[in-house]
């Protein structure tokens, strides 16, 4: 069977990467919400609003904290998988982020574990803008790696099983360029690539809907 | 506003008299009560507001006050307060400027060594408070009459007590549609009161202007006391004439009789005087240490010029603004920027390597604060900036916001100026004439009714706490000050005590005695009886007093050693959350039970290593609870009276994020440590009676292009520019860091505005607005010239505290040193053309290395074994929470020689003569064995008596026969009936006035244990682990010249 471990890794990463993209987008939204208080200035000064706003901040920070570990572990999982699959190039691309994550996780200036994203620290405009930038960068990184996995997966699988996946990256790329799935053109071979593309589009749509 | 014990009176003269404090209707108006009350009432604090820092301004206080009664204060008061400022904008003044400038009479008058006093005295022979010094008789007798009666409605010339006329005037005022609160608030010395109403109010306002003048002119503290001054004094008098208070200036025009004494002329009089010298004579500024004078342009080689510390308190630099604008600018004690010339771009700022930030003291007690009641508060429609003196009026109907540049309409009612009762003068309105102003917020600013003042006291009554005996002191202080608590008829009060259980006290009206309810379930705390635990103070006052009397005895036999602080705080929070308010927590040990229990973390033998110390909280329980409190508008003030380690790093969070404050009394014991008892008493007194604002928020706005990115202080940042302050008190300072986001090349001026919205203890919603305006510069040299070294040191200290928490103490110390090195090498490489050897610094930064060295030796950042962890953390809390002036004092104490105090150069405040010894460098070489030296370190005063100190001093001040008889621990000076004793006591009590923390006086002789502390503060000397000043300079030079 040509469906190698490497191919499996890429496919799994693809799916998980979509999740990471989702996380990153959620982060951006969350930080944006922390930054701006969508109330008129007079309302903001209202003591009753203070409570609401504070609860909101705490909720967001709580969720942010909840998401830290899943995100980091998913990304480390990639790295371990690529290590096992001996995909050195992909691993090399992911390692910087891995180290960054490690640094982030262990650099919490804390005797207690919960200080990552704790409300008073996050609300500092400096920290907030840093976090927001970080989230944007991660989004970009995950998006790029998503497409990377998308088109690299077939190419790794090619020598072993041309029947299952697209024969060459060229085909898939052309497919995307034209924008229409070309059913007439070797229906059996493009299935996976096609499926992936559909998935991508679906995910994007999902994301857009969620952003709104 | 919340002046305890001082009635608010409508417009009655008597009531207004009360505004000036002790002055009663008896006519002894000018004794100026405020100061006499010392720390007691916030009134005092109010009166002291500006002055404590600026002794220089004192000399004018009296004259101005004495002047006033004579000068027919009535209508003038109102216009006066505004006029010195407002006139600047008026077109009229230009006319008069040349006139006065060219006036030979004036110059001769001031050129000669005519002391300032004569004028006022001669005007006002009856002035009670004037010390009858040697005054030139008849220097000008006419003046008062001349300008006094410009206002048509004033009484006759001889009327020294113009109340009658004032009445009618006030009536007039009230007719206006939006009147200014007249006399609304005793403490706030409303200047818009139609002056006639309140002679005293006028005084207040006059005073402030004087001090403003002084600040701006950097006035020399010329002394009214003696006529024969040394040459320098003479010069200073001559030159600093422009900084004379308006009162003086007013007197001058008449003496130049050429001017027709018409009412129209009057305003231009003072102006002319102010402007002439400043405009024509640059020496003026040079005398007062401004940043722009030749001296300020000087480059200094620190290695050669040793003595850079001025002998008078350091004045903040004056922004290089057009004088008209500078006149209106905010007092630097309230609002200060590290760079008084803002760099145009972030690149320029980065090049200068100086931090850009603001230091605020927004709720400082003020002598004079204009209060405006108006149905609409004029604000920019897009950025919501309050209208301020630095907006520009495009025409009568439109104004342009100085923060976002949006053009706004002037509302119809703003066109009418209730002060002058003229229509169509929006630029004369008080809002546009005062950089510091308070608005009464209309109803749209409160969706729920303003909260009542609620005070909850939480006492630790475990065995350890009872041992220290603090309950006696606290309960007694509370009993004494119960009537002085700021509040109104709605004031509520409650008590909780705790050891391993939590005790509530039902104070229901009608009970014969307080009822104690014990909750022993600390896992799931509940309130046993939701009502009657917080009771109306007025209705249940007897029960409260009963409880306070019995409370200290109730637990004397207790054997419970555990302390369940966490659950007690939760209970207190639950109790207060419906209303909000202030919670005062007294804790004496490490909490050991329930949530929030802590473990000891300090390891004494590790103190020396700067690495492994626990500056971060060990649990986030207190932080979370503090945030909950913040959401419910509850502020928690923590009083920690503890002998052993109590993990202030964790406990302090409860105050830090709820905008409370921390008080720390290490090894408090009622018998073994009476000094601390006294300290606690005094500080409690101030704490209980000072002004308080509830459910406050503060927002700081700045001109488009600048952005604020980090805040320092005790608060929670609710959205990026909004600070949530459940309570705000006059002793809290804040700092912010800023960056230049967009280039400011198109703008000449930038403005900063802080707006503090709070509920006063009287239940009014008020907004206090401060606006600061600064110039934008494009060259590095100008940035350096405008640097405010004290503010920079203050901001760096705040940043260093953050750094030591997030990284490590040694990191923070390195960062401090690097800040000096970086900025000085930037100066060397980019500004200085010729590379001279030595350590060249701009004049403005001449004290920068010294202050940074002082910071390194400050308790927060020092290395060495002598700092206990809690003390260090308390020092850090203080760095974050103290206003700049006190921070600078604790960092770089002032040293005075006090065995030869004389009245030369003394200040004169309300009958008291306060000597002004010069400030010495903090080096042992300045000490001498035959002298006595007083060190003022902010929260502590140390009087070091040399071994060979004159017998005179020993017997006449200390009241002992010889040196050996000075007691080992002496914390009070006896009040002896000698002039020496009177002088030093006056000086010390003057230093103590208005301090948030009461400085204890230690008399130190050679063998005293405190001597080490005294020497520790000698920052210019080498200590066991730190460099001396000269070594530090060498180190910096080495790094800079690399």
Largest sheet of chain A: none
The percentage of residues in β strands of chain B lies in: 15-25%
Shape of chain B from CA axes?
A: globular
pLDDT < 50 stretches of chain A: 110-114, 159-189
Helices, strands, pairings?
The complex is a heterodimer of chains A (212) and B (1042).
Chain A: H1 5-35, H2 41-44, H3 47-84, H4 88-106, H5 119-122, H6 125-157, H7 169-178, H8 191-211
Helix pairs in contact in A: 1-3, 1-6, 1-8, 3-4
Chain B: H1 13-19, H2 33-36, H3 42-48, H4 58-70, H5 73-89, H6 92-101, H7 104-111, H8 118-123, H9 143-148, H10 163-175, H11 199-217, H12 231-239, H13 246-255, H14 265-280, H15 282-287, H16 294-297, E1 299-301, H17 323-328, E2 335-337, E3 342-343, H18 346-352, E4 357-360, E5 371-373, E6 392-395, E7 398-400, E8 407-409, E9 416-417, E10 422-423, H19 430-433, E11 436-440, E12 454-460, H20 463-468, H21 470-481, E13 492-498, E14 502-506, E15 515-519, E16 535-536, H22 541-554, H23 565-576, E17 581-587, H24 621-631, E18 634-640, H25 648-651, H26 653-656, E19 662-664, H27 674-689, E20 693-702, E21 706-712, E22 716-719, E23 722-728, E24 734-740, E25 749-760, E26 765-777, H28 780-785, H29 789-806, H30 809-830, E27 840-842, H31 848-856, H32 869-881, H33 884-891, E28 894-897, E29 907-909, E30 912-914, E31 919-920, E32 932-936, E33 940-945, H34 951-958, H35 979-992, E34 1000-1004, H36 1011-1016, H37 1029-1040
Parallel strand pairs in B: 3-26, 5-11, 12-13, 12-17, 17-18, 18-19, 33-34
Antiparallel strand pairs in B: 1-27, 2-4, 4-24, 6-7, 7-8, 9-10, 11-26, 13-14, 13-16, 14-15, 20-23, 20-25, 21-24, 22-23, 25-26, 28-31, 28-32, 29-30, 32-33
Helix pairs in contact in B: 4-11, 5-11, 5-14, 6-14, 13-14, 21-22, 21-27, 23-24, 29-30, 29-31, 30-31, 30-37, 34-35
Membrane topology (chain A): Multi-pass membrane protein
InterPro entries (chain A): Cornichon, Cornichon_conserved
Keywords (chain A): Membrane, Transmembrane, Transmembrane helix
């Amino acid at each position: 069977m040509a469906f190698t471990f490497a191919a499996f890794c890429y496919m799994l990463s693809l799916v998980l990467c979509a999740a990471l993209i989702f996380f990153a987008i959620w982060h951006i939204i969350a930080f944006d919400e922390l930054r701006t208080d969508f109330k008129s200035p007079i309302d903001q000064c209202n003591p009753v609003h203070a409570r609401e706003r504070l609860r909101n901040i705490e909720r967001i920070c709580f969720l942010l904290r909840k998401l830290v570990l899943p995100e980091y572990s998913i990304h480390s999982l990639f790295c371990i998988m690529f290590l096992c699959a001996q995909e050195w190039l992909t691993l090399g691309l992911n390692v910087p982020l891995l180290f960054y994550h490690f640094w982030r996780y262990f650099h919490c200036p804390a005797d207690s574990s919960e200080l990552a994203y704790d409300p008073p620290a996050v609300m500092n405009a400096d920290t907030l803008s840093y976090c927001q930038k970080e989230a944007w960068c991660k989004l970009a990184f995950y998006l790029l790696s998503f497409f990377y996995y998308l088109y690299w997966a077939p190419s790794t699988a090619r020598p072993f099983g041309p029947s299952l996946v697209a024969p060459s990256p060229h085909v898939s790329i052309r497919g995307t360029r034209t924008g229409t799935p070309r059913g007439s053109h070797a229906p059996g071979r493009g299935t996976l690539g096609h499926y992936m593309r559909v998935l991508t589009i679906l995910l994007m749509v999902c994301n857009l809907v969620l952003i709104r | 506003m919340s002046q305890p014990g001082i009635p608010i009176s409508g417009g009655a003269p008597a009531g207004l008299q009360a505004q000036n404090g002790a002055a009663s209707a008896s006519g002894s108006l000018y004794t100026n009560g405020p100061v006499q009350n010392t720390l007691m009432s916030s009134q005092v604090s109010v009166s002291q507001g500006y002055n404590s820092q600026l002794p220089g301004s004192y000399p004018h206080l009296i004259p101005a006050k004495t002047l006033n009664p004579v000068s027919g204060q009535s209508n003038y008061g109102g216009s006066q307060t505004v006029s010195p400022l407002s006139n600047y904008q008026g077109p009229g003044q230009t006319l008069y400027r040349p006139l006065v400038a060219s006036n030979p009479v004036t110059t001769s008058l001031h050129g000669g060594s005519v002391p300032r006093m004569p004028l006022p005295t001669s005007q006002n022979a009856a002035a009670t408070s004037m010390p009858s010094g040697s005054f030139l008789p008849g220097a000008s007798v006419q003046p008062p009459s001349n300008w006094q009666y410009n206002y048509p409605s004033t009484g006759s010339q001889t009327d020294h007590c113009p109340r009658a006329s004032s009445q009618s005037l006030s009536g007039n005022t009230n007719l206006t549609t939006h009147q200014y609160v007249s006399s609304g608030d005793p403490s706030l010395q409303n200047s818009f009161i139609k002056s006639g109403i309140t002679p005293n109010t006028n005084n207040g306002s006059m005073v402030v202007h004087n001090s403003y003048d002084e600040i701006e002119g950097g006035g020399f503290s010329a002394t009214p006391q003696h006529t024969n001054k040394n040459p320098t004094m003479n010069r200073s008098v001559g030159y600093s004439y422009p900084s004379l208070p308006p009162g003086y200036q007013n007197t001058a025009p008449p003496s130049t009789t050429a001017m027709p004494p018409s009412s129209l002329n009057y305003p231009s009089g003072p102006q002319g005087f102010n402007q002439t010298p400043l405009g024509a004579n640059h020496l003026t500024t040079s005398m007062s240490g401004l940043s722009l004078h030749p001296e300020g342009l000087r480059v200094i080689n620190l290695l050669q010029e040793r003595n850079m510390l001025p002998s008078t308190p350091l004045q903040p630099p004056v922004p290089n603004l057009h004088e008209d604008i500078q006149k209106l600018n905010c007092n630097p004690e309230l609002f200060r920027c590290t760079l008084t010339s803002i760099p145009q771009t972030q690149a320029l700022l980065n090049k200068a390597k100086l931090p850009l930030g603001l230091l605020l003291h927004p709720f400082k007690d003020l002598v004079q604060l204009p209060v405006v009641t108006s149905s609409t508060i004029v604000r920019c429609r897009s950025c919501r900036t309050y209208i301020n003196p630095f907006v520009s009026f495009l025409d009568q109907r439109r104004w342009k916001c100085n923060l976002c540049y949006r053009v706004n309409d002037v509302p119809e009612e703003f066109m009418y100026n209730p002060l002058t009762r003229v229509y169509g003068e929006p630029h004369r309105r008080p809002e546009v004439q005062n950089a510091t102003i308070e608005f009464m917020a209309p109803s749209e600013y409160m969706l729920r009714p303003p909260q009542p003042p609620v005070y909850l006291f939480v006492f630790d009554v475990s065995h350890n706490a009872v041992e220290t005996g603090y309950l006696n002191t606290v309960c007694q202080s509370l009993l004494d000050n119960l009537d002085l608590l700021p509040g109104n008829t709605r004031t509520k009060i409650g008590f909780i005590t705790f050891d391993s259980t939590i005790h509530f006290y039902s104070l229901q009206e009608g009970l014969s005695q307080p009822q104690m309810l014990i909750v022993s379930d600390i896992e799931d705390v509940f309130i046993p009886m939701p009502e009657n635990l917080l009771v109306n103070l007025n209705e249940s006052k007897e029960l409260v007093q009963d409880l306070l009397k019995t409370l200290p005895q109730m637990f004397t036999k207790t054997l419970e050693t555990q302390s369940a602080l966490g659950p007690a705080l939760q209970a207190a929070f639950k109790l207060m959350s419906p209303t909000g308010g202030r919670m005062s927590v007294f804790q004496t040990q490490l909490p050991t039970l329930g949530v929030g229990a802590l473990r000891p973390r300090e390891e004494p033998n590790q103190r020396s290593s700067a690495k492994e110390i626990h500056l971060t909280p060990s649990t986030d329980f207190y932080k979370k609870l503090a945030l909950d409190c913040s959401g419910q508008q509850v502020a928690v003030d923590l009083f920690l009276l503890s002998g052993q380690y109590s993990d202030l790093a964790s406990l302090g969070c409860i105050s830090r994020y709820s905008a409370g404050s921390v008080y720390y009394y290490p090894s408090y014991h009622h018998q073994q440590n009476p000094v601390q008892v006294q300290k606690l008493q005094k500080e409690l007194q101030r704490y209980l009676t000072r002004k308080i604002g509830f459910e406050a928020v503060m927002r700081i706005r700045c001109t488009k292009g600048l952005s604020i990115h980090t805040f320092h202080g005790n608060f929670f940042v609710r959205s990026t520019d909004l600070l949530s302050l459940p309570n705000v008190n006059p002793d809290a300072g804040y700092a912010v860091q800023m960056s230049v986001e967009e280039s400011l090349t198109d703008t000449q001026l930038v403005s900063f505005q802080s707006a503090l919205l709070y509920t006063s203890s009287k239940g009014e919603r008020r907004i206090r607005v401060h606006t600061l305006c600064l110039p934008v510069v494009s060259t590095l040299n100008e940035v350096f010239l405008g640097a405010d070294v004290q503010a920079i040191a203050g901001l760096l200290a705040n940043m260093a505290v953050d750094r030591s928490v997030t990284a490590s103490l040694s990191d923070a110390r390195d960062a401090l040193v690097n800040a000096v090195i970086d900025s000085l090498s930037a100066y060397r490489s980019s500004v200085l053309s010729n590379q001279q050897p030595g350590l060249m610094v701009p004049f403005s930064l001449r004290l920068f290395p010294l202050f940074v060295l002082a910071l390194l030796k400050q308790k927060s950042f020092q290395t060495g074994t002598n700092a206990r962890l809690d003390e260090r953390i308390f020092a850090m809390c203080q760095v974050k929470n103290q206003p700049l002036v006190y921070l600078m004092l604790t960092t770089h104490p002032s040293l005075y020689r006090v065995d030869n105090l004389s009245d030369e150069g003394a200040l004169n405040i309300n009958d008291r003569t306060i000597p002004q010894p010069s400030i010495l460098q903090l080096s042992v070489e300045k000490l001498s064995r035959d002298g006595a030296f007083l060190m003022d370190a902010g929260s502590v005063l140390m009087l070091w008596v040399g071994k060979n100190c004159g017998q005179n001093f020993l017997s006449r001040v200390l009241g002992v026969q010889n040196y050996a008889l000075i007691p080992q621990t002496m914390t009070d000076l006896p009040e002896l009936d000698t002039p020496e004793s009177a002088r030093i006591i006056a000086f010390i009590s003057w230093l103590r006035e208005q301090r948030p923390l009461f400085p204890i006086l230690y008399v130190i002789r050679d063998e005293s244990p405190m001597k080490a502390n005294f020497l520790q503060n000698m920052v210019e000397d080498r200590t066991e682990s730190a460099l001396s000043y000269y070594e530090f300079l060498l180190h910096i030079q080495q790094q800079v010249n690399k």
